[in-house]
Automatic annotation (TrEMBL):
<dbReference type="InterPro" id="IPR014710">
    <property type="entry name" value="RmlC-like_jellyroll"/>
</dbReference>
<dbReference type="InterPro" id="IPR011051">
    <property type="entry name" value="RmlC_Cupin_sf"/>
</dbReference>
<dbReference type="Pfam" id="PF07883">
    <property type="entry name" value="Cupin_2"/>
</dbReference>
<protein>
    <submittedName>
        <fullName>Cupin domain-containing protein</fullName>
    </submittedName>
</protein>
<dbReference type="InterPro" id="IPR013096">
    <property type="entry name" value="Cupin_2"/>
</dbReference>
<feature type="domain" description="Cupin type-2">
    <location>
        <begin position="34"/>
        <end position="100"/>
    </location>
</feature>
Length: 114
């Protein structure tokens, strides 16, 4: 057992546009926190791993090719590997607990669209 310290807690380096910090990594999954300040731009690219976001603070909208939804604390979003997605209209500092399966970046040679 392990307590994952800091996972999902708002944290942003001074002057940063957004911030990603990984708090736990195993071969099968990774857990981290992604933060975007009010008015910030989410510049991430699609990932080769499945992803779950749990909104722990803030408000925004997530946009994907399959739909658009408002998110707020308690919202849980699943994004399959390879799907374009972006958080927009960040109206309150957004903190997201992020779970990747398998671990983030571990499937660099996988092409989900195939």
């Amino acid at each position: 057992m392990r307590i994952v310290e800091g996972a999902g807690a708002w944290s942003l380096a001074a002057g940063a546009a957004n911030d990603w910090a990984e708090q736990l990594r195993t071969p099968d999954l990774s857990v981290g926190t992604y933060c975007i300040p009010v008015g910030g731009t989410d510049d991430q690219s699609p990932h080769t791993e499945d992803e779950i976001y749990v909104v722990t603070a803030g408000r925004a909208t997530i946009v994907t090719p399959t739909g658009t939804a408002a998110v707020e604390p308690g919202t849980v979003v699943f994004v399959p590997a390879g799907e374009e997605h972006r958080f927009v209209d960040v109206t309150e500092d957004l903190a997201l607990l992020v779970v990747f399966g398998p671990a983030y970046g571990s499937r660099k040679d996988v092409h989900p669209e195939e």
